[in-house]
């Protein structure tokens, strides 16, 4: 499903009205009815409803909604802001509403209280709002937040921008948001997302072909966008699904490489070898019996001169993942840079592998790598601070992927998967259960496992991100979110894949 911003949504509206020929009043009517139907579906009291309506089209949606509610026998009070400024379809619906048994209160001065209503509908500002709410409108939004029993925002919580995930100031804190045609950026990305509540995307007759014309290649990652996972043929064998190598581990951090290896194997790789510093190889030998091991060097971390043995071992392999638990020793950094430059294998780089990847090494990875930083790691890679990255992470991720020719998986509660071609996915199917060490190692293994089976790096990144989130949710269903460990998540991977197979 495409994610739109204010400008692209406005253009889809314009195309639908001016070129497809659906009148704007019909779109507003459809929007109002979709909100009415959502309210009707709620299993909560809804005998008395207040609608706070602005003077733009969002307010017009509110006026049309009031009519539908009144026809259904609901007691409706409409609090209208500056009705003298209404025009177009908003004024048309306001004028019609004057003939209905609905109380219309013109707001001026002091903001009303909403505690006597079962539901308060926020129809103050739409997706085109920019800046920060001040003055009377700030007081009104504060009253909606503090005195309402249940809040439903039309299209977007008022005070948010339809083109940004940032929160500039006060905004409506909705229990639910009913939006139209497609989700917008604030519906999908934090911190704005936490003010949207439950999100319902409804059809108001804007055709898909008009959305196709305005889409900017940004998609909400849902199951229907995943590459297909075919069932295995009866004549397949371990060689059919590739040999993946997970290079990682250092003193005290060998578990990271083993978790990545296990998730890689569970994702379906035919063979998985965990490449560890030689003195730590006993961890792999005494760990999962299904994972092979390849000891390198002599100590408890990789050294630059060890790369020749590693490169020789990698000659007939399908994919290399490097970085999980590998440590920040400078000798290890030399090992990583040398091995990445000396091979042409698809590569998945995570954790401290990213710490050691310089610009020269990055240029050698164009067209064959997936990088999986969290926000802090990405800040270091870009030379920005964490606050700067958080504020503009979508654009930064897209630019980084395009400029460097890599697939970037920027991990957070709303994970961004950006491809060199400009196609970007946002994954919001995760769980707080994944907010724990080891989740990133599991993701690295998943992505590596799918590349081993023949998927392109971008396809593997999309599958890995989606499956990790789904497995985390399944694990959390069986225990407290705070108690889930990565081993529990890995055990759920097979169930998720089984559900996704053709």
Structural class: alpha/beta
Chain-averaged pLDDT: 97
Count of helical segments? Answer: 19
Overall shape: elongated
Strand order, main sheet: write it out: 8-17-16-15-14-13-12-9-10-11
What fraction of the residues are assigned to beta strands by DSSP? 15-25%
Tally of strands:
17
Helix content: 40-55%
- Characterize the quaternary organization of these chains: single chain
Radius of gyration: 26 Å
What does this structure look like?
The protein has 502 residues and is α/β, with parallel strands linked by helices. It is 41% helix and 16% strand. The protein has 19 helices and 17 strands. The strands form two sheets. It has a ten-stranded mixed beta sheet, sandwiched between helices. The protein has a seven-stranded parallel beta sheet with strand order 3-2-1-4-5-6-7, covered by helices on one side. Helix 1 crosses helix 7, helix 8 packs across helix 17 and helix 8 runs parallel beside helix 19. The protein is elongated, with a radius of gyration of 26 Å. It starts with 5 loop residues before the first helix and ends with a helix.
